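Supplementary Methods S3. Input chains for the assembly prediction are listed below.
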Amino acid sequence: MADRFQELLEELRQGVTEYDEERVKVAAQAVLDEGFDAYDAVMNGLAAGMEEVGRLFGANEYFVPEVLMCADALYGGLEILRPHIEVDPSRQVKGAVVIGTVEGDVHDIGKNLVKLMFEIAGFTVHDLGRDVPLEKFVEEVLSTDSDFLCMSAMMTTTMGGMKQVIDQVRQKNPNVKIMVGGAPLTGDLAQRWGADGYGKDAPNALQEALRMVGSLREMHQEAAKGG
Amino acid sequence: MATPRQVVEQAMALEVPERQPACIYGGGMWTLRQAGETFAGLSEDPARMSEVIARVARDVGSDIVYTGSGYNNVHVAALGGRIKYRQIGAPDLEEPLVGSIEDLAGLKLERVDEYVTVRTVQETARRVAAQIGQEYMVTMTSWGPFSLGAQILGVEQTMRGCFRQPELVRAVVDFAAEFIRVFYAPVVEDGTLKLVSLADPTAAGSLISKKHYAQFALPPLQRLAEYFRSRGAATLLHICGDTQDRLELLTESGAQIVSIDTAVELAAAKAAFTGKTCLGGNLDPVHVLQQGTPEEVVRGARRCLDDAAAGGGFILMPGCDTPPLTPRENVDAFLHTAFEYRLQG
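Predicted structure tokens for the full assembly:
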């Protein structure tokens, strides 16, 4: 029984990394038909496959078309499995994210990859799209009470807008974790602007976010102790 | 003493030039800012635009002079695309123009020359060439076929299409190449331009694989470069991102000059290009050219020259478009480091 489940998880993983949507769908259906746990299949099959895709992307073995195809394969499986995931408090989503490219910037392919990584990892994502007015970021973070704000810019003429948003969000809610990314940025610059994280590329952005989740949890725990 | 245009021609011929050539790559928005102008303000006024460009060019002294850069997104407005202008940065196309091969039939290439901004850019090139073309290498720029095709079809659809709809991607990129030919034809056929500049950021090493580059981006580029060559004009190709894995392919593009991004090791590119293609590159345009001190710019430029200038066939350039907010003194430091560099055969 356990061996069969391992076999299906491997099918899901490989189907995702080899962007074989049919293979993923067949394996996902088999998970349900044979009575295995859908949540386990999502996390240790589909998401594990996507983690490998992130590694291949970081190593310049996969590029944007490959990653999008892998994501399509993953969503093919997710559609089958998601309705069968039982709600369990220990499986709650990790947090909510507001994401977008800053005003003046329409380059959103990197932002979409980061969004994808967040969704797969179980975050609730509020995607504001591209060319987003700076005040919209601030409003959305407050109205959705999100834990994270992610912004990207691909041009030197637009990236400065991120600093303004960081300053405004900090004034209203200092606990929001902010991550920035995009070709003209560096980790140094992100730090100087007061961001908590810098996403060099999509997988790296997710790693940064997970690191920040850790620090958010600590923060909540300390607040709880104090309270 | 050789003119700026002559040293560029010597580098393109893969010779050791009389002095080291250098240019600000692109820099259309930067140039207009030096004169306190915006593209939107000049987009229908070739007389003023050419006057501004020629004046700034003479003052700055870049060996290659761009008569139109930073407005690449505006060209497709000739096909009906809606453009959003900005105060500082480059204008953008708001939405993709097609979703299928059938949609391409609705885009009328014969109308391209009627579009006022296209005519302004072409007329500006003629006027700038008439004013300073004897002395400087005057060029005009547009997207390369893959990048323009991705703009017409939408970037994400193009990326997925590489796998799911290769025929559609090929058709759109071929259409884009034909658009580029039509866009340049009047100023290439009349002898205005001896150098055509193509920027292909969406075919960047960071976005598509070497295999897809060879499959979709390279063939239309080769056809275009061959057309320009047959009309007496050379091609300058700029490609963004890390292209280290496909340097050989870039030398097969047909472009006489290939300008590479900061992400590529210049010495490795020089080794791959020697005897084949003139190399341009690759000072970090943001963190050094724009944000560094003039001393840092000099140090960075010298490193590029030490890596690639020996033996000729090299033009010092920033690794991508010159950012609009780059300080003038940094541009001066950049160019003069090359002009004063002692070249070795």
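The domain at 4-339 of chain B is CATH 3.20.20.210 (TIM Barrel). Strands of chain B lie at 64-66, 83-84, 92-93, 137-143, 195-199, 234-239, 257-260, 278-283, 314-318.
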